[in-house]
Specification:
There is one protein chain. A hairpin with a 7-residue loop joins strand 5 and strand 6. The protein has no helices and eight strands. By secondary structure, the protein is mostly beta strands.
Amino acid sequence: VGGAEASVSWSNIKGTATVTPIIQNNGTAFTGGSQTTTQDIDYIGTFRGRAGGAWNRVYLYGTAGLAFGRINYAANTDFRPTGTVQYPSAFSKTKAGWTAGFGGEVAVNEHWSWKTEYLYFDFGKETATANPSLALPPFQVMYTWNTTFHSFNTGFNYRW
């Protein structure tokens, strides 16, 4: 049994990581300071194919296709209190990626079914180069985000 599915969901998926102390290029720790990076996703959507098999009232399937979403990125390397400089970066992008997973549906009656599904999302890498908040020292910091996550969904479907 095959078919197609499209979905859009508002989300509150957030991730933050803080590293302290900051490790310098020579491998030594910078005294004081920290580096914080954040990602959050406003919404995600998919256009996917589904293929599987049906037995009695149960349908098991695999699914894969296009994923899209609005992703907010932010980071700051803060050398205070020892230093005086910060390297902030913040931006948002609507990104395309891919998703794949599997799931199952159980028919409740002629029109309704209960569905549960696992999806893996991959929106790839995003990088940004940040300049210092003060002009000195004239260095830059590069940030790289890998946007991947796992999703588990459950709900009801209605068939006309």
